[in-house]
């Protein structure tokens, strides 16, 4: 007994009233966790549980509690119902029966009927049934879902539906005038019937039709009993290795991995919900568990929760491997179903989802439909940090460098483009678009540098015009006010309007190098492709009765004086009169294509043949 326990209770628990016990020798702290056989365990012997001595005495004497202690008060506000409804008690509980039906076959000498295998699913939660047929590859028969999930009446037009008591083995059942023979069921269904006090009878074998029997007889090949031993003997004698029994399984299932999404609820003091990915390798039946990493989770980035190995259902822990003769049972594909729990060395993990390949594998190979469970999604925290406005120094990329990093770095340049396109300069003659009439007569030379997408503007002047010529704008990158993106080479085409700061320019003409450059890069400059221009012009022929009428009307409106050659102004006026909306650049390249004499006049004979007219 400690020294402090001898003091009266009226003494206040204050410094000076309590003294240390001089007889106390054990000063250690109670250890809560321990490691036994490699497993972390928690001690519970120091936890004090309150109990009622009267109830304990009544249990020892064997007398009813109501005679010694009194009757138990009925619970108040009991939110758990005493009799659970079916949708709660049998949630995700499905009975599966293997059955078949006989289908008649006509005009076939080999068979007069066929056996069709189906699977009947009965959902205990709502009493619905659906029937499906496993798909057989290259069967030539439409297979899959036979009857959608619904309540099936025993007789059409009545409200008497089938229940689980009506589904018995070795019996016939009628679904919509089609008779099914139930021959077998799965383990869960048999255990359910035994639990309900109505055990099922023994299963019966599935009958074989003539087609299946003939196919098995045709492919039957009986080898001598000692053939395998002879082959292995001669293989080893000739220097080969020992036979590998799992080689065929490895070759057929190599790189086939079933991926599941699992969650582990860590119930410790500092525990939380942990998300993992369980990969099951079909080649050697091994599993690995990877942790799903999240940013700013505060956890160390351990890549694996469990390395690749076989996971036992009940692990046998020994000091050294091979010390026990008990056979361990490992998890397989039939155990990894969405909604089930997997115990991984003391951690109960819940399977709530899988990938598309896993769903397809279970449906085609095992005949099981994986239904992912719905989890309450945690809302991620989103933080909005507005980008400060441009400070005016350098380009906008330079200003954003101080936003994204404490030590800003210069923006990366497209070095390859700079080396390959630096020698290409596109020059255009343009005019200023202004509300002042005198300003519209000013002419400029706009140079676009393809290497770094910069623009430089020079102003031309005539003698005694009163306009100063020279550099109008320094070489720099300019933004398109309509798209808020920097100008590129595809924005500079004849007739286009570009805006630099507050000045608007219309591109009127281009030099010979620019014309050839745009013609070579027809994928960028669509309006410089003569084939697309002619195809666009031929599309207007849809408004005429035939193509010849379109050509005749086009020639009459363009060459009204029948000179055989027209100038650019006559081409533009004729197309405008016909209502053909070609851009200035398309008209320019059309004129340039059919200018045979070099006098900037279109040859109508060449234009007639180029657009598709017959050669005279």
From TrEMBL:
One of its GO terms (molecular function) is alpha-tubulin binding. Keywords: Cell projection, Cytoplasm, Cytoskeleton, Repeat. This is EF-hand domain-containing protein. InterPro entries: DM10_dom, EF_hand_dom, EFHC1/EFHC2/EFHB. GO terms for biological process: cilium-dependent cell motility; mitotic cytokinesis; mitotic spindle organization. Residues 546-581 form the EF-hand domain. It is found in: Cell projection, Cilium; Cytoplasm, Cytoskeleton. The keyword Ribosomal protein does not apply. Its main location: other. PROSITE patterns: DM10 (PS51336), EF_HAND_2 (PS50222). Residues 91-197, 254-366, 422-522 form the DM10 domain. The keyword Metal-binding does not apply. Pfam families: DM10_dom. It comes from Paramecium pentaurelia. One of its GO terms (cellular component) is mitotic spindle.
